[in-house]
Amino acid sequence: SPEEREAFIRSMVERLAAKMKENPQDVEGWVRLANAYRVLEEYDQARDAWGKAADLAPARLDVQLDYAGSLIEGRADLDKKVPEQFPAVVTRIRNLDPNNPLGLFYAGVVARAEGKTDETRDLWGKVLELMPEGSPERAQLQHEIDGLGKPAN
């Protein structure tokens, strides 16, 4: 049944969390735990696990990108402010790969929250160039760029 399946998954996640307390230097374990928490929609725990993985693996772009995503997931106020840790993680991402599309997008999120409209437009314009023509994501980003500097309705 779905209830039994969820109980089984939760017990597996609890065992993994306990294992991570015994071996807190295991980056891959933190990544697995973060993903498991995300599947269970336990976003705070997922964010904490991503943070542990990111601290242990500052040179791993994939981990830094996932941590950054977890910091802003579900937030509706990103046009005005970003989580305190987010700018530093974005800087780390940009240092690892200055042209990573998601890193450029995240840098634009930071710039927008800081009121730097021209910088946001420049960063997101670079992302736009990398996106496929006609994609819904491209249209959404273009809409965001077009709305920069305009008062909210």
Descriptive account of the structure:
With 153 residues, this protein is an all-alpha fold. Helix content is 71%, strand content 0%. The chain contains eight helices and no strands. The longest helix has 21 residues, at 2-22. It is elongated, with a radius of gyration of 18 Å.
Short description:
The protein has 153 residues and is mostly helical. The protein has eight helices and no strands.
Give the arrangement of secondary structure elements.
Elements: H1 2-22, H2 27-39, H3 43-56, H4 61-72, H5 86-96, H6 101-113, H7 117-130, H8 136-146
Helix pairs in contact: 1-2, 2-3, 3-4, 4-5, 5-6, 6-7, 7-8
Provide key terms for this protein.
about 150 residues; mainly alpha; 8 helices
**Number of helical segments with 4 or more residues:** 8
Distance between the termini: 46 Å
Main pleated-sheet profile: none
Average pLDDT taken over every residue? 94
Shape verdict:
elongated
